[in-house]
């Protein structure tokens, strides 16, 4: 159990290091207005905090820096909610600004969150395994090209341009759209291939002349091998952090960021509510020098996706936790509104 004085000193050290990224010594701490203790008293308390594992010495300075254990204690016991609601309101205004597609809301939220924090934001979109097809449209662009539009019940919209086979005319395209919407609307995305290969294939054989070619185009568009959608903001923000001037650390981070399945698996395993994992608490090697903060958003009580921020262990936890809490609530509300208006 830490004494009241030790708690105050620990909090001031961590707050200062988060702000400056520089180790701090007892003499500098004794000059702070909120620490009415002598340099000798502070030095003794810092020695005890180091012995308890909350502080560490650096190789380049006589000062101390927080350890991962110190950050964990700080997050769990020393920080309160941020009182600055202006930044949360910025996100709220964007969400309520009338975007038609939920996907746009998610993308904009990721970008805004990264700008407000200067960290890397990642939002896991509604998983396609848990969503159903809402509508398919095929819009001819010319005699030889068209764009196919797939919309799910969670607001995911996918566009894909394709060349129209020569033997398929506009009436065949219309038949194809009608068949798909009749047979596929409400079908879970994960089951699209099964329904395509049975019911839709049977109908197309009966009513379309150039069945084989049309069916291949249809499958190429509808059967998605990557059912998870990730939205990333501020991927390069890590380069602005003084802790990451090590080329190997940077290479490891950017290599991981290219592996969307790996990132998605990390976020899919996040729990409800706010979760903070610090440094070596993270299981993935590439982020063992980082802190990861996650929160989920929901639709009718069901987990639909995850909001996350990746940054240095010297993260502005109070500010970030407040922002993520606010965004989680706003995205849950926005998803409900989108589903109610368009469902």
Explain this structure to me?
The chain has 343 residues and is an alpha+beta fold. 47% of the residues lie in helices and 18% in strands. The strands form 3 sheets. It has a 5-stranded antiparallel sheet, sandwiched between helices. The chain has a 3-stranded antiparallel sheet with strand order 4-5-6, covered by helices on one side. α8 packs antiparallel against α9 (211-222). It is elongated, with a radius of gyration of 26 Å.
In terms of topology, how is this protein built?
Blueprint: H1 4-20, H2 26-30, H3 39-51, E1 55-57, E2 64-66, H4 68-78, H5 86-95, H6 102-117, E3 120-124, E4 133-140, E5 145-152, E6 157-163, H7 170-184, H8 192-207, H9 211-222, E7 230-233, H10 247-257, H11 260-268, E8 275-278, E9 290-299, E10 302-312, H12 317-342
Antiparallel strand pairs: 1-2, 3-7, 3-10, 4-5, 5-6, 8-9, 9-10
Helix pairs in contact: 1-3, 1-4, 5-6, 5-12, 6-12, 7-8, 8-9
State the assembly state of the protein chains: single chain
What profile does the largest beta sheet have?
Answer: 5 strands, antiparallel
What is the SS-derived class? alpha+beta
| Helix/strand order, N-terminal first | HHHEEHHHEEEEHHHEHHEEEH
Distance between the termini: 54 Å
What percent strand?
15-25%
Task: Using the CA coordinates, give the radius of gyration.
Answer: 26 Å
Uncertain stretches: none
Defining key terms:
single chain, elongated, three-stranded antiparallel beta sheet, five-stranded antiparallel beta sheet, alpha+beta, 10 strands, 12 helices, 343 residues
């Amino acid at each position: 159990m830490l004494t009241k004085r030790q708690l105050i000193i620990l909090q001031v050290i961590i707050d200062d290091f988060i702000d400056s990224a520089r180790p701090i010594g007892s003499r500098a701490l004794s000059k702070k207005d909120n620490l009415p203790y002598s340099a000798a008293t502070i030095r003794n308390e810092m020695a005890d905090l180091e012995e308890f594992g909350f502080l560490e010495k650096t190789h380049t300075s006589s000062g101390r820096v927080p350890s991962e254990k110190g950050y964990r204690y700080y997050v769990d016991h020393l920080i309160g909610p941020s009182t600055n609601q202006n930044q949360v309101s910025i996100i709220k205004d964007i969400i309520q600004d009338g975007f038609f597609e939920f996907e746009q809301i998610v993308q904009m939220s990721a970008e805004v969150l990264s700008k407000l924090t200067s960290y890397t934001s990642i939002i896991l979109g509604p998983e396609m395994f848990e969503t159903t097809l809402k509508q398919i449209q095929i819009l001819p662009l010319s005699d030889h090209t068209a764009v196919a539009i797939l919309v799910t019940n969670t607001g995911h919209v996918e566009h894909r341009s394709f060349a129209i086979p020569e033997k398929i005319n506009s009436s065949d395209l219309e038949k194809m759209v009608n068949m798909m919407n009749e047979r596929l609307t409400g079908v879970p995305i994960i089951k699209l291939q099964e329904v395509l290969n049975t019911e839709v294939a049977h109908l197309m054989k009966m009513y379309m002349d150039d069945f084989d070619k049309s069916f291949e185009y249809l499958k190429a568009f509808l059967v998605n091998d990557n059912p998870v959608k990730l939205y990333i903001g501020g991927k390069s923000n890590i380069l602005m952090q003084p802790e990451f001037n090590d080329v190997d650390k940077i290479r490891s981070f950017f290599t991981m960021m290219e592996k969307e399945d790996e990132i998605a698996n990390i976020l899919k395993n996040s729990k409800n509510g706010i979760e903070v994992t610090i440094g070596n608490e993270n299981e993935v090697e590439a982020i063992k020098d980082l802190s990861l903060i996650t929160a989920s958003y929901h639709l009718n009580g069901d987990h639909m996706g995850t909001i996350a921020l990746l940054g240095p262990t010297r993260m502005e936890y109070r500010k970030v936790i407040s922002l993520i809490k606010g965004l989680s609530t706003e995205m849950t509300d926005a998803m409900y509104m989108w589903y109610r208006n368009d469902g």
